[in-house]
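Technical note accompanying the year-one report. For the benefit of new consortium partners, we illustrate the data format agreed upon in the data management plan: each record pairs a sequence with a structure-token string. No post-processing was applied to the example shown here.
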Amino acid sequence: MTPERYEQVCEICYEALELEASQRAAFLDRACADDESLRREVEAMLANEGRLKSFLEARALAVAAEQLAEELGVGKTTPPFDDQQSNDTDLSPPETRMEPFALGELLGGRYLVEGKLEGGGVGLVFLARDQKLHGTPVVIKVLREDLGHKAWFEKKFKQEIAALAQIDHPGVVRALDVGELSNSRSYLVMQYVSGVSLRSVIAPLGMELERVASLMRQMGQALAAAHNQGVIHRDLKPENIMLQTVGGEEYVKLIDFGIATVRETAEDEGRTTAVIGTRDYVAPEQLRGKPVPASDIYALGVIAYEMVTGRRPFNAESLAELIDLQRDGVKVKPCDLRPGLPAAAQDSILKALSLSPQDRYDSAKDFTEALAHALTIGEDRRAAPRWLATVALIASAVITLAVWLTIHYITPPRPEPINTPSVTAPIAVPERRLSYSMVAQRDPKRYPHNRPFSTFDNLIFGAGDQFRFLISSPQSGFLYIINEGPVQTDEFPEFNVLFPDTDTNGGSAEIQAEQIVQIPLPGKNTQQDWFFFDPEEGVEKIWLVWSERSVPVLEDVKGWVNPTNKGAIRDSKQRALVAHYLAESPAIKPEVERDEANKQTRLKGIGEAMVWLMKLEHH
């Protein structure tokens, strides 16, 4: 079986697994057409799915693929891709897990085990103290004893040790020592990294660009050092990037080389390996088991996109969907989500996310240096002519002195005015608060058994997917929701009024404190309770206007919500007025807080009216 054929079989299987068993035969008729050999290969892979119920979907498919590969004589594949988290997802029940040593035990006569750190299904991680170095904290990592595919994981563990031993860079966690337990199990002693993960500091709307530039530059340097030693990380993600603050400066440290690939010879470059990693950060060629250094550059591109926008470029729910999204390319560009981002920075990120490894940067350092330069070039240009600023300061001082001499020695003195004490009352600045959450459901026709789920508005939707909003506020006020469409021939966008409508509060936009408004409004038919995405790709723009008082411009257009026009504003002058109002909305954007537990977005704005634009990507 060729790699291309293997990929084709996998893709059909992924699609088939989305369907009920009763629907698969008809699907395979269409997908395989008259290719009987392809049909047999797909069915052989799917035949294993039923007896692997304890595995996740992708894990079951990969094990089935391994068995199929054996049957077809194409050689074994390696352990399965983790479609949810990373290589450390725990597969065994708690009662089967075995601890390799007790707390308080002294390993190798040197390392006193103090406690267990966060671990997973592959590696157990412990905090210990190096008794020969004045109790310096270290990390002890050892493989779990009850692993499936144990020989493969032992091989990867030894490769991690080899990888860390080869890399000597301050941005990569250091391997300090190795040892062996009484049962011949190896353990690795690593540098203890205190600090926080990059994940914990990525803001919902993106990070400060100067900070992004600094951190990305360090990541690129550390990753380049690994690549220079033939080490491919293969699981770069914000959780595996630690941030330490030393002397007021922030430093990056790459961790978790547990599934790294060490290329010892030129022949290793074309070798097929396990399809493992963390789904949202895996490069296309890595999905085919062909990781190269550029695969890590791709992961850095995903991380950079997330750091500047607060979201990932692709939001797939399965590997099959991820493959499709990667082929189609990034639809929502970083500048769409962050208009102030320099165009050159966007170009750098998109180049790193290229489908083909050959189209990405030659090295991780080249990418991060280009990105850092693009993010800071505006500041460099402003700061470059320092001598000009000095001249301007001297000139300003001379002019000030001349004016002072004129006033005091040429202009005759004027009588001093009588100062009348005045009292300035403090000005109360109004504040508006609004919260919203989104309930979504994948296309019910394609996924009839998928249930609705709560999410944020940064989910990437597909054709047929549906959603609704729940909106509330601790204050009373006037709520307007407008959907902005494409620009029309008169150069103004198409607008549709989503709220208020004739069935709510007698058509009034006024809602009371703590009143929950569902958009679209609940109907007699549950199918009416949702907005649906059509097959056309793009970004849906939805404006929320939350005002202390009624807004005349928006009050004038709510009459278009009727059975005939269904909210579409037909009058071009009114569309122009709405466009002008939204464009002239306050320059100070509302503060945004995301409640991860309740999947709720909270907005806080200054002024009588708060305006917020949501962008929903669909393709």
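Partners are asked to follow this layout when depositing records. The longest helix spans residues 386-410.
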